[in-house]
Write a structure and sequence with these properties.
Layout: H1 4-20, H2 25-41, H3 45-122
Length: about 120
């Protein structure tokens, strides 16, 4: 059986992993695996010490996994944001170029009309 401290430790760890649940199922898989291993280990005194050491190591590892997941998510977000900005800019640039082309076309048409009109009146 576990001591009161070990039970509290495991409970607090379970809460932590439940919050990680949606983020990375691999982490919860690793936790189950380690919990099974710990159940076998904790029967001996030496096993109890190993049990606590593994738990602490696992907590540190899961914290790093969590940080990595958050970092990856942030990177993905900023990458998406940059892509969206670029798409928006390209689209705006395209629209502006189209407007300029249209303006130029209509200006040329007007100039042709003026020229034809002038030539027509002279001759």
């Amino acid at each position: 059986t576990l001591s009161k401290e070990q039970k509290e430790f495991v409970t607090s760890e379970k809460v932590m992993y439940q919050s990680l649940d949606g983020l990375d199922e691999r982490v919860s898989g690793i936790v189950q695996h380690i919990n099974l291993a710990c159940n076998k280990l904790k029967k001996t005194e030496e096993g109890k010490q190993k049990f606590v050491m593994i738990k602490v190591t696992k907590l540190n590892q899961s914290h790093m996994d969590f940080e990595r997941l958050v970092k990856d998510a942030m990177t993905q977000l900023s990458r998406n944001f940059e892509d969206q900005l670029k798409e928006l800019w390209d689209s705006l640039k395209g629209q502006i170029e189209n407007l300029i082309t249209q303006q130029n076309d209509s200006l040329q048409i007007n100039q042709k009309e003026i020229l034809t009109h002038q030539i027509g009146t002279h001759y």
